[in-house]
């Protein structure tokens, strides 16, 4: 096996993952000003899916699964998405963790050694922010 080719390919895929992460961070910043932007939500989910695929190609299975879990967390809430501050913050924390995972990925070994506790905590925080939003959304509908 040509290790130089492998490392170059891995490096390019990691560069792609970093670029996609930048798009995700831009989406989060956009939500601070436009919390109901459906196009930004679509872009967020498309980019998370792309990042998941790129991470899987790179060998970053944990990161790939984490991206899909973020998407699933939103889908599980069944609400019209309105990004409130706590949800934006929870997303940004997820993106910081993904950034850290990209940095920690060992290109030579083709693996990422990490424990799942941080990912689980981030998903719980995201779920809690979405559940809070869902409670507020449902209360406002009953008062209409």
3D architecture notes:
- The protein has helices spanning 3-33, 38-58, 61-77, 85-104, 117-142.
- The protein is an all-alpha fold and 144 residues long.
- The chain has a single domain (3-142), classed as Up-down Bundle (Four Helix Bundle (Hemerythrin (Met), subunit A)), CATH 1.20.120.160.
- α1 runs antiparallel to α2 (38-58), α3 packs antiparallel against α4 (85-104) and α4 packs antiparallel against α5.
- The model is unreliable at 136-144 (pLDDT under 50).
Order of helices and strands: HHHHH
Number of helices: 5
CATH fold-level topology: Four Helix Bundle (Hemerythrin (Met), subunit A)
Percentage of residues assigned to helices: over 70%
* Low-confidence runs of at least 5 consecutive residues: 136-144
Number of domains: 1
Q: Sum up the overall morphology in one term.
A: globular
From the N-terminal CA to the C-terminal CA, the straight-line distance is 66 Å
Query: In CATH terms, what is the architecture?
Result: Up-down Bundle
Q: What gyration radius follows from the Cα positions, in whole Å?
A: 17 Å
- What is the overall pLDDT average? 82
| CATH class value | Mainly Alpha
Beta-strand fraction estimate = under 5%
**Count of strand segments:** 0
Q: Considering the protein shown, what is the CATH homologous superfamily?
A: HPT domain
Helix-strand category? mainly alpha
Largest sheet: none
